[in-house]
């Protein structure tokens, strides 16, 4: 008999904001799980800070663990960096894990959202290239020798790639090297990766595709797993805002509804990767990651 991969879906629209904020361009967390009548029901949360968001995610995951319900948790920022980043930083071990550990060690993120992401970006630039590259983007007060407010140059053949393979496949995804301004994916990744690491380390979680492989998943692959963490790109699942909904809220709802609908038809497993030989596989599984639902 076919069965679902997951019983609950959590989608996280992250923010690197430096002060508490709600509404548009803040953190939105969508949760779709069974209610007391065992029907799938959606709820949206809009915590004002990353600390509140982490507390909420812990509570949601703990509740699902008590019920024995496995969750797919999607984060809308990269869980890995472009190929070669770990080597440029001279980090030992599996590149994805080394970079996550590095971000967790270097990032200081206070309960009021004050954070040091510009200092971390500048430090990474210094260690990787000795110049204000490849990270760029900062308010004038945070500009420094190793981090410029504007992009200093294009990526050349000898540089780290501007985009991961997944960013190219998703078309329109921004580069992780952008630390500030609208769609500052780099700021979201640097502030988000430490949270992903803490959530993962506290429970039996697999991070896709690093710990599952870049391949279709079946329930048997996840028998002991409480949750799978994946990177998502909510605009792949366009949802029109309903009455009283803002765009970010509609996007986390749309992603939850999409994953639930696919899982109901036993079609979600295919989204987790390719069965065919692919020269990009090693980079995707060891360092870069992939965006769930991006065309291979």
Note down, in words, how this protein is organized.
By secondary structure, the chain is an alpha/beta fold. Helices cover 32% and strands 11% of the residues. It contains eight helices and six strands. It has helices at residues 50-67, 85-88, 95-106, 117-128, 165-170, 185-201, 247-264, 281-288; strands spanning 8-13, 28-34, 40-45, 71-75, 205-207, 227-231. The radius of gyration is 19 Å and the shape is globular. It starts with 7 loop residues before the first strand and ends in an 8-residue tail after the last helix.
Summarize the structure.
The protein is built from eight helices and six strands, in the order βββαβαααααββαα. With 296 residues, it is an alpha/beta fold. Helix 3 packs across helix 6.
Helical stretch tally:
8
Work out the number of β strands: 6
Query: What value does the Rg take, in angstroms?
Result: 19 Å
Can you summarize the main beta sheet?
6 strands, mixed
Which consecutive residue ranges, at least 5 long each, have pLDDT under 50?
A: none
Largest beta sheet: what is the strand line-up? 3-2-1-4-6-5
């Amino acid at each position: 008999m076919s069965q679902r991969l997951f019983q609950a879906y959590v989608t996280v629209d992250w923010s690197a904001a430096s002060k508490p904020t709600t509404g548009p361009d803040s953190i939105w967390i969508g949760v779709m799980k069974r209610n007391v009548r065992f029907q799938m029901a959606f709820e949206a949360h809009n915590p004002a800070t990353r600390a509140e968001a982490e507390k909420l995610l812990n509570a949601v995951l703990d509740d699902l663990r008590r019920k024995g319900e496995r969750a797919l948790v999607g984060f809308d920022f990269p869980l890995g960096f472009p190929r070669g980043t770990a080597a440029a930083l001279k980090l030992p071990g599996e590149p994805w894990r080394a970079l996550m550990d590095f971000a967790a060690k270097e990032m200081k993120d206070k309960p009021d959202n004050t954070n040091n992401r510009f200092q971390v970006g500048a430090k990474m630039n210094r260690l990787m290239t000795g110049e204000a590259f490849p990270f760029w983007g900062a308010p004038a007060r945070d500009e420094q020798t190793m981090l410029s407010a504007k992009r200093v140059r294009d990526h050349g053949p000898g540089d780290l790639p501007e985009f991961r393979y997944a960013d190219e496949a998703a078309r329109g995804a921004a580069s992780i090297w952008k630390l500030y301004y609208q769609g500052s994916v780099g700021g979201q990744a640097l502030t988000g990766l430490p949270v992903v690491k803490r959530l993962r380390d506290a429970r039996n979680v697999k991070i896709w595709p690093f710990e599952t492989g870049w391949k279709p998943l079946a329930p048997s692959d996840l028998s002991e797993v409480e949750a799978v963490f994946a990177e998502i790109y909510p605009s792949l699942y366009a949802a029109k805002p309903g009455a009283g909904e803002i765009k970010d809220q509609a996007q986390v709802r749309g992603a939850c509804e999409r994953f639930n609908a696919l899982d109901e038809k036993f079609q979600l497993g295919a989204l987790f990767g390719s069965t065919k030989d692919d020269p990009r596989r090693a980079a995707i599984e060891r360092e870069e990651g992939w965006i769930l639902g991006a065309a291979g």
